[in-house]
């Protein structure tokens, strides 16, 4: 059976992230991925959840409170500054997720943009553990979305194949700019571990 986009994003993250790791939700929005990651890393793990929008910060904070999550830092800043919030410069990040685009039922002019998205991807690749994944769910139907999609695709397609596996997962018979996934795996030594 083929996974739907959001299900596949979670499947990929869950299959590579370990308990107790530090992971990143680069665009927390309504906090659904933050909650998911919080469950995957467990109470001794840590989720850094970024958003530039006050509404997203409030909604995510409330969702974490409702679910009694103590292992999440909700950060009101752009993901391109993420290294400021990592406890050490030597630490490894277990995985990361981006949802590009705007926050549903919110201000459609506050969108992710190519420059900061690419900067954040590069920074996370630096800290990512071997065999770790960055999963990017690309929504691009909105104004400005196509430009970001093209720039991000161009960037990840030129990542060295010696160091990274880069996957695109998309349904090719759907209409109206359906979202798709880009997954970047940092190559490690030996085989890639699969938990599932
Ligand atoms: N994952 C979210 C959820 O489960 O609801 C949806 C995220 S929504 C598609 C994209 C989010 O990215 C918006 O909340 C927006 O405010 C945020 N955003 C835009 N630019 C950002 C940036 N530079 N750094 C962090 N967040 C950003």
Question: Summed up, what is this model?
Answer:
This protein is an alpha/beta fold. 32% of the residues lie in helices and 23% in strands.
Write structural notes for this entry.
This protein has a single domain, classed as Vaccinia Virus protein VP39 (Rossmann fold), CATH 3.40.50.150. The model has no long low-confidence stretch (mean pLDDT 96). Helix 2 links the parallel strand 1 and strand 2. The two termini are 15 Å apart. It is of the alpha/beta class and 196 residues long. It has a 7-stranded mixed β-sheet, with helices on both faces. The protein has 5 helices and 7 strands; from the N terminus they run αβαβαββαβαββ. It is 32% helix and 23% strand.
Keywords:
binds S-adenosylmethionine; methyltransferase activity; alpha/beta; MnmM_MeTrfase
The CA-CA distance between the termini, in Å, is 15 Å
What class, by secondary structure content? alpha/beta
Number of beta strands: 7
CATH architecture: 3-Layer(aba) Sandwich
Write out the distinct hetero groups bound to the structure: S-adenosylmethionine
Q: What Rg, in angstroms, do the CA atoms define? A: 16 Å
Overall mean pLDDT stands at 96
Please tally the helical runs, counting DSSP H or I stretches of 4 or more residues. 5
The first-level CATH class is given as Alpha Beta
| Unreliable parts | none
Largest sheet: 7 strands, mixed
- The CATH topology is Rossmann fold
Categorize the overall geometry. Answer: globular
Question: How many domains make up the coordinates?
Answer: 1
Helix content: 25-40%
Task: State the order of secondary-structure elements, H for helix, E for strand.
Answer: HEHEHEEHEHEE
How much of the sequence is in beta strands? 15-25%
Q: What's the name of the CATH homologous superfamily?
A: Vaccinia Virus protein VP39
Organism: Virgibacillus chiguensis
Protein name: Putative rRNA methylase
Keywords: Methyltransferase, Transferase
GO biological process, one term: methylation
């Amino acid at each position: 059976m083929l996974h739907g986009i959001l299900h596949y994003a979670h499947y990929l993250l869950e299959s590579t992230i370990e308990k107790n790791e530090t992971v990143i939700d680069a665009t927390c929005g309504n906090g659904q991925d933050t909650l998911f990651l919080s469950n995957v890393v467990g109470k001794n793990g840590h989720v850094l959840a970024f958003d530039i929008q006050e509404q997203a910060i409030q909604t995510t904070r409330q969702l974490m409170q409702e679910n009694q999550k103590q292992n999440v830092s909700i950060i009101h800043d752009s993901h391109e500054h993420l290294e400021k919030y990592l406890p050490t410069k030597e630490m490894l990040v277990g995985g990361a997720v981006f949802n590009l685009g705007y926050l549903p039922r919110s201000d459609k002019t506050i969108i992710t943009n190519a420059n900061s998205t690419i900067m954040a991807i590069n920074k996370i690749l630096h800290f990512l553990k071997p065999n770790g994944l960055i999963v990017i769910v690309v929504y691009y139907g909105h104004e400005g979305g196509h430009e970001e999609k093209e720039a991000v695709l161009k960037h990840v397609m030129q990542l060295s194949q010696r160091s990274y596996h880069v996957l695109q997962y998309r349904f090719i018979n759907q209409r109206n700019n359906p979202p798709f996934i880009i997954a970047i795996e940092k190559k490690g030594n030996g085989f890639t571990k699969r938990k599932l």
